[in-house]
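Fill-in record for VOC domain-containing protein.
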Amino acid sequence: MQSGIFHLALPVDDLDAAAIFYGDVLGCRRGRSSSRWIDYDFGSHQLVVHKVETRDMPVVATNPVDDEQVPASHFGLVLPWDDFDALLSRLQSNSIDYAIGPHTRFAGRRGEQRTCFVRDPAGNYLEFKCFRNPEMLFATDGLDYP
């Protein structure tokens, strides 16, 4: 598949809270908007938050990954190693709680990565991570994951 800009649309129950989280906390540039949705530049990809009623918010299942229950429905960014620490500082300075705190996954293995999960005000899960060896992002050989 050719490279392109990824587009993701998410349900939120409060556009003002989403604007604070994605715009102020994460620092995403705001794009077009209406009374029912807002576009954001999320790592050079298009993220759109759509206002829905609270009853329409999805329930998220989990899946075990490296001895953790990871939300099966999530999105995020793979950051450069040093940028991960800057993001953690930004989250901490904005008093954002972690759904899964910062830690190293697959420690000492070929796919070693640092990761953390947060939730936006509507409950959508975001994962931010970085790889010790960025070339492992799409590796398929020599992995020992159960």
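KEY FINDING: The domain at 62-136 is CATH 3.10.180.10 (2,3-Dihydroxybiphenyl 1,2-Dioxygenase; domain 1).
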